[in-house]
Amino acid sequence: MDQSVLGYSLTALAISLPCLYLALILLSPPPIITRPSEKTYRSRKSLKDPLSLPSLADAASIDLSVIIPAYNETSRLPSMLETTLDHLDSTSIRQTRTYELIIIDDGSKDDTSALALKLAQQHLNSDIRVVTLEKNLGKGGAVRHGMLHARGNRLLMVDADGASRFEDLELLWKKMDELGRENEPTVVVGSRAHLVKTEAVVKRSVLRNILMYGLHTILRIVGVGHIRDTQCGFKLFSRRAAQQIFPAQHLATWIFDVELLLLAKQLGIAVAEVPVQWHEVAGSKLNVVKDSLQMLRDLLVLRANQLTGRWKVSP
Length: 315
Hints:
The protein is of the alpha/beta class. The chain has helices at residues 2-27, 77-88, 91-94, 112-121, 139-148, 169-179, 199-202, 206-222, 239-245, 256-266, 288-308; strands spanning 40-43, 46-52, 62-70, 99-105, 128-132, 152-158, 186-191, 234-238, 270-275. The strands form two sheets. Strands 5-4-3-6-8-7-9 form a seven-stranded mixed β-sheet, sandwiched between helices. A two-stranded antiparallel ribbon has the order 1-2. β1 (40-43) and β2 form a beta hairpin. The protein starts with a helix and ends in a 7-residue tail after the last helix. It comes from Suillus fuscotomentosus.
């Protein structure tokens, strides 16, 4: 009897494992494809004739690249850019730091690219580059694309809504200086964890807060519990860290931040978390229920691919 049960169990296991592996293949996202037009950018100096984008594999030629993913952001982008440039063009920063802004229009249905170019023409002393993706990839795909074509020695990803206080870049910059020498791979992430009990978070809907705590529980299980806020869209990467992390990124959806942090952990890259100021901004593209379910699915797919060795990364 025991042998019969054991035989049935082994048979069931032999059948289920290939089925699970096949399901993993079907649920995994396809490779992110870059189309020829997406390897170019426009700026105030080249409004009609796109220029070729550089490569992250090249040596840095400026101090800072600011990567701004944008999807239908005509209403929020102007104020965000104004705040960003007010800081970067301040006397104390301008004298010591060269920079570029890379706006990645993630297949917008509005005039995000046209607006970004119009704003670029209003700031003659700033290098603002606009890249237009032919199809919507998702925030993670847009950030990855910008990072892979940035020139900065340090690379900052920041949301187009202006929810994070841009001046807090200096807090991340200082922490990166403290982490090690300039040529070491390091990551510093902005954190809103200290705001959990404040009005900025308490005013959110009950459902959104419940889902937030549930996500944090799952993140502890998958291996990034050491980071209190994985989803803050304000992260600074040294060039060496970006060169190792972003070519290995697979997820283009909302949960891509977790993949970046997991990759950093697997690569032995130092990661620090710094409190930043943040406020809710109207116009979020996040569908709380739908996107939370997608995040859960993508987390499971991510970990399964890593554990089975389908997605490998090495220093």
